[in-house]
């Protein structure tokens, strides 16, 4: 008796497993798309600034990236040179020399220290801008690759409407935002 129950249960289970097969005519072929991978775009921008934007096919952003980083590098170099000019002039005056380039312009040593501090502070800020624009370049490439995968419907519209209020007999106006999915 036990053997019959096991046998019939096995046959019943076999029936359920056969019914779970997929018919071959209903198989939908998968379209092999190669979406932009955000990590790859970020890696490219980290290796060479602007390469992630080229990978995302946003060519117009490359001059902005190089302009921002290049202007920051130029400001860093300018402030570094002037900082060294003021520092060397101050060192020469402390050593007793009177032949520095600021001798006829700046007579007080405190003004040379102020000039050093001014250009040193601007040099440090320029370095922060270089690093900031570099990371902004990587972040932009990553976010742009993420956002390219989303389809934005062009039917985003605001439609004004006028409605009669049946209780107060006044005309009401308003704006309706319609979202179609």
Task: Describe it.
With 181 residues, this protein is mainly alpha-helical. The protein has a domain at 44-149. Helices cover 58% and strands 9% of the residues. It has five helices and two strands, in the order αααααββ. The mean pLDDT is 82.
How are the secondary structure elements laid out?
Elements: H1 2-18, H2 38-47, H3 51-55, H4 62-95, H5 109-147, E1 157-164, E2 171-178
Antiparallel strand pairs: 1-2
Helix pairs in contact: 2-5, 4-5
Task: Name some characteristics of this structure.
two-stranded antiparallel ribbon; 5 helices; 181 residues; mainly alpha
What fraction of residues sit in β-strands? 5-15%
| Overall morphology | elongated
Structural category: mainly alpha
Mean pLDDT equals 82
Query: How many helical stretches?
Result: 5
Head-to-tail CA distance between termini? 59 Å
Q: What order do the helices and strands follow?
A: HHHHHEE
Radius of gyration equals 35 Å
Q: Count all strands and give the number.
A: 2
- Enumerate the strands of the largest sheet in spatial order, edge to edge or round the barrel: 1-2
Short description:
This protein is mostly helical and 181 residues long.
């Amino acid at each position: 008796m036990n053997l019959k129950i096991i046998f019939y249960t096995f046959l019943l289970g076999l029936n359920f497993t056969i019914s779970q097969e997929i018919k071959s005519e209903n198989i939908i072929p998968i379209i092999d798309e190669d979406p932009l991978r955000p990590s790859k775009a970020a890696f490219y921008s980290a290796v060479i600034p602007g390469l992630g934007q080229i990978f995302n096919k946003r060519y117009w952003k490359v001059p902005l990236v190089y302009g921002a980083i290049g202007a920051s590098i130029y400001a860093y170099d300018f402030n570094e040179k002037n900082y060294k000019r003021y520092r060397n002039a101050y060192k020469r005056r402390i050593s007793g020399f009177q032949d520095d380039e600021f001798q006829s312009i700046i007579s007080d040593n405190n003004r040379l220290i102020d000039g050093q501090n001014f250009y040193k502070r601007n040099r440090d800020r320029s370095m922060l801008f270089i690093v900031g624009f570099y990371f902004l370049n990587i972040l932009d490439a990553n976010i742009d690759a993420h956002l390219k995968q989303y389809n934005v419907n062009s039917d985003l519209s605001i439609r004004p409407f006028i409605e009669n209020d049946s209780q107060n007999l006044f005309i009401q106006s308003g704006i309706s935002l319609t979202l179609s999915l």
